[in-house]
Amino acid sequence: ILQATQAAQAHADEQKNLHQYIAIIVDPVEVYLASDADESKLPDKARGVGARYFHKALIGAVSSAFPVADQPGPLVLRLRSAIIGVDVGGEIPPAERSSDPDDALDRAVNIGKVGVEMELVDSESGEQIAAMVDRQNLGEGAEIGAVHFGRQEKYAAAREAFDGWAHRVRIFLDSAHELSGDDAKR
Questions:
Q1: Mean per-residue pLDDT for 39-62?
Q2: Rounded to an integer, what distance in angstroms lies between the CA atom of residue 130 and that of residue 57?
């Protein structure tokens, strides 16, 4: 019985091997507010700002390792991610708001204490292949104050955080694709 269990476990581990996957779906990023955040002060427009930027950063980071797919299939990974702990920032004075009404936000989005959670799953079975959690205190200045915050230097801390998390995903994928001694011999 022990040998059968070990053989089943070895087979399951082989199934979770990232080497076998050839493409990736990058799902839209979910956003979860801090537990004490006033949801009424962060409309969907404000919540989606960081999520859209992070989604683009993730696609940019993984696309040269895996072609990005839009449909589940054999040998296709799915990357699910969430930004957690988003909070309401201060009101943006009218003089500092973007002159473009589609770009302007009434309140900043505070990401000073956010974290990210990500998981890679098999796109067909939904079985988890890997999970990643990263939390860091970005501190003061980690705010988003306009829909196109990536263009504004004053929101550099937020942009750097999202780019850094996306880069860490790529480093993980690269390290997972390095062949072990036994795999290299085959």
A1: 89
A2: 19
